[in-house]
Every structure is written in structure tokens, then in C-alpha cells.
From TrEMBL:
Residues 59-246 form the Dihydroorotase catalytic domain. This is Dihydroorotase. Coiled coil: none annotated. Pathway: Pyrimidine metabolism; UMP biosynthesis via de novo pathway; (S)-dihydroorotate from bicarbonate: step 3/3. The active site is at D315. Zn(2+) 1 binds at H68, H70, D160, D315. Its EC number is 3.5.2.3. The gene is pyrC. InterPro entries: DHOase, DHOase/Allantoinase_Hydrolase, DHOase_cat, Dihydroorotase_CS, Metal-dep_hydrolase_composite, Metal_Hydrolase.
Length: 434
């Protein structure tokens, strides 16, 4: 058992923000109150059955929940596996992660979903919930057995990596997923408009001579899927929103009462397409959807602040060093983000006064838990003891030795970031400590 004293607790689910003591044990939160006394602790733990931490000057948050990660297992364990990805997750403050299905083979069968669930439990660090494919083989032609996969442990459905191109297939997915209460996650990309581009289509791509991806390739699909969710009454979640037009469409859809939520990645909040030009090779900034213009970045921040964008998600996409050192147009899309995301957002958006702390935790803990029907997202007494002790002053130099993830493809390599979890508990077990 742990008695955490004098922590600055932030828990939007309970409307709490202040100095509290927290007692955790038996896998759950036992007490949360101001000025917890030793007599009260003894009443729960006995005479000597606890470890005491004075957390003055540090924050205590509900464990973060990342609804968009790529753990690569099964099939591409050279890039990442569930063990290395889980280690990276808890180091970054994530106690629960959702693993996307575009593995090799695709997570479109019960046995494969159960494999990811069991591997996550075997590793015993972050809680790992698989996302199953929408269509078999992510080929866009035949729906998976959604009810069976949800019963096996799938937390949602996505053909992430490529969007469902046929509108009727997406409509059917939204209809059938209602039997499971799981969200359908849209990778919003019209492939005919993206046309195998490698960065945002604009002045920078023209100057660099690189094939561009227009914002419309995303926003057209956002519009389509919001309309389909409205028609079907389905539960829609929009992945990695990057364009200002998409934000406007989501805002209007919510006003009409559509059951839609959306996520934004830290890299889209922090960088623009100019970052590609400023870097000798730039492949650390090659992501899909691509980094866009400053006006898009500002629209994303505004959307997060006003609740149009409900969640933050890393889209953790580890690759081998050899792949990412290819020329820009040949390198794979993706940033390895689990270990740096919280620190980067804290440093660039929270300490600068742009993003309130309460909204940070709401978007990275409470809202994901509620949307995907996951335990956690709060420090409520009786709930799971998934929590992080966060030191806003702690700094780390991000280098290849620091990163637990096999993916070293981060734009923060060689930089010092500030604001890190110094202790992380999952179900009351200390799984990470600095």
C-alpha cells in the first residue's frame, strides 16, 4: 500500500484540483482526502502496512490513456513488440493503451485479438486493449465478426493505416458496431485525393519537390463519416485530425447531435510542414496525416480548447532506424511518441499557458476512458489505482539510450524536455520509477 501525501491532485472526472492525500492498495484507490491522518491510514493498512511518499511540489494525475498506438506485434517485432511498447507507455505516463490492428497478420480474428490481450497481461505493465479491424484483411470488402471480436476483448474497430474507401461499407460498419457498443474509428483519408503523397500539399512541398497530400483528402472523409454516423445512429471516433476544415465539420456535427468524438496528435499541435524543410532529412517529421500549415495548427489548438476535439492521442508509430534513414519519399510515415508526448505537450502548451492542466488530463484520461468504456480516467475511491506522480521540473535528454521503445524515430532526439512522470502505478503496482 502507498500513502501519497501533499500531492497536487488534478482529476476532472471529480472536479478536483488541489492538495490531497491519496491512499492506494489492493489495486484500487482507498482514500482521497485533504490531510489524511496516520490513524486513518492505520485503519486501512494496519500498523506498518504502507509506504509513504511526500509528493509536495508534484502533481498526481489519473493514469493517461492513449487510444491510438501501434505495437507492431504480431509480425513486426523488429519495430516494436508489446513488451517494449508497454515499457515505453508507462515511462510516458500511459497506464492504458489501445493497440491498432494493422499488424502482420491483421487483427481481424478472435484468436489474434485474444493473443494481444494475453500478451499485454503477460507483460504486466500498461493495460493493453486491442482495436480490431473493421474489414477482413483491412481490404475494405467484408466486415469482420464484430460481436465475436468485441467479446474477445476488442475495444473498438478501425482499418487504421488506410481508410474505408466505400461509403456503404462504412455505413454498415457503423450499423453493426452498435451491437457491441464499441466505437468505429475512422482513418479519414480519401486515397484518390491523397494519391500517394508524402507531405502536406502546399508551398513547402512545392519548394522541396515532394508530392503533396491535400487537406481535402482528410476533410472529405470526415464529412462523409459524420453524415453516415448521423444517418445510422452509430458511434464514430475520428483519428488523428490535422486540418482546419475537419475541425469545422466536427464542430458542426456535434451541434447537430451526431455521436462523434475526435482525437488530435501532439505532433500536429506542435509542428507544421515547415519543420520538414528545416531538417536535413526530415523523415522524423513524416507522418500521415501530414504536418500542415500554421493556420491548421491554430485551428487544432482552438478545437481542443473548445471541446470539438475530445482527446489527445500519440499515434505512436515506431519504425526501424534503417527505414527512417531512407530518402523522404521512401521512408515510412510515423513518429515514436509514447515516451515524449506528455513532456512535449507540457513544455510547449501547458507551461506557456495555452492548455490548462485540467483540460490536458480530461483529454488524455477522462474522455478516452468514457468513450471507449475503459476502467480508469479518474482517482475516484474504489476505482483502479492507475495513477502517475508527475514532476513538472524533471528534465530528460532524449537519446537512443533513454528510449525504451524500439522505435527511435522521434523529432525530439537530442533535445532535453521538461516535465515527466517520476512514479507510475497500474492497479496499485509501481511499474515505473525515476
Amino acid at each position: 500500500m502507498w500513502w501519497i501525501k501533499n500531492a497536487q491532485v488534478v482529476d476532472p472526472a471529480q472536479g478536483l484540483s488541489g492538495v490531497y492525500d491519496v491512499l492506494i492498495g489492493e489495486g484500487k484507490v482507498l482514500q482521497l482526502k485533504k490531510g489524511l491522518t496516520e490513524a486513518e491510514v492505520k485503519g486501512e493498512c494496519g500498523e506498518t502496512g504502507w509506504q509513504e511518499i511526500d509528493a509536495a511540489g508534484s502533481y498526481l494525475f489519473p493514469g493517461l490513456i492513449d487510444v491510438h498506438t501501434h505495437l507492431r506485434e504480431p509480425g513486426r517485432e523488429d519495430k516494436e513488440d508489446i513488451a517494449s511498447g508497454s515499457r515505453a507507455a508507462v515511462r510516458g505516463g500511459f497506464t492504458t493503451i489501445l493497440a491498432m490492428p494493422n499488424t502482420t497478420p491483421i487483427l481481424d480474428q478472435k484468436a489474434l485479438v485474444e493473443y494481444v490481450v494475453n500478451q499485454g497481461k503477460k507483460v504486466g505493465l500498461a493495460k493493453v486493449h486491442p482495436i480490431a479491424a473493421i474489414t477482413k484483411g483491412q481490404a475494405g470488402k467484408e466486415l469482420v465478426e464484430m460481436v465475436e471480436l468485441a467479446a474477445a476483448g476488442a475495444a473498438g474497430f478501425s482499418d487504421d493505416g488506410r481508410g474505408v474507401q466505400q461509403g456503404e461499407m462504412m455505413r454498415l460498419a457503423l450499423e453493426y458496431a452498435k451491437l457491441t457498443s464499441c466505437p468505429v474509428i475512422s482513418h479519414c483519408e480519401d486515397e484518390s485525393l491523397a494519391h500517394k503523397g508524402v507531405m502536406h500539399r502546399g508551398i513547402v512541398s512545392t519548394r522541396l519537390g515532394l508530392k503533396g497530400i491535400p487537406s481535402s483528402s482528410e476533410s472529405v472523409m470526415v464529412a462523409r463519416d459524420i453524415l453516415l454516423a448521423e444517418e445510422s445512429g452509430g458511434k464514430l471516433h475520428l483519428a488523428h485530425i490535422s486540418a482546419k476544415e475537419s475541425v469545422a465539420l466536427i464542430r458542426e456535427g456535434k451541434k447537430r447531435g451526431v455521436d462523434v468524438t475526435a482525437e488530435v496528435n501532439p505532433h500536429h499541435l506542435l509542428f507544421t510542414d515547415e519543420a520538414v524543410a528545416r531538417t536535413p532529412y526530415g523523415t522524423s517529421y513524416k507522418v500521415n496525416p501530414p504536418l500542415r500549415r500554421e493556420e491548421d495548427r491554430q485551428a487544432l489548438i482552438e478545437g481542443l480548447l473548445d471541446g470539438t476535439l475530445d482527446m489527445l492521442a500519440t499515434d505512436h508509430a515506431p519504425h526501424t532506424w534503417e527505414e527512417k534513414t531512407n530518402p523522404f519519399d521512401q521512408a515510412p510515415f510515423g513518429i515514436s511518441g509514447l515516451e515524449t508526448a506528455l513532456a512535449a505537450v507540457w513544455q510547449e502548451l501547458v507551461t506557456t499557458g495555452i492548455l490548462p492542466i485540467e483540460l490536458l488530463i480530461k483529454a488524455w484520461s477522462m474522455n478516452p476512458a468514457q468513450r471507449f468504456q475503459l476502467p480508469g480516467g479518474t482517482l475516484k475511491v474504489g476505482g483502479p489505482a492507475d495513477l502517475i506522480l508527475f514532476d513538472p521540473e524533471h528534465t530528460e535528454l532524449i537519446d537512443t539510450e533513454y528510449l525504451a521503445s524500439k522505435g527511435k524515430n522521434t523529432p525530439f532526439l537530442g533535445q532535453r524536455l521538461q516535465g515527466f512522470p517520476v512514479k507510475v502505478w497500474v492497479d496499485g503496482r509501481l511499474v515505473h520509477e525515476i
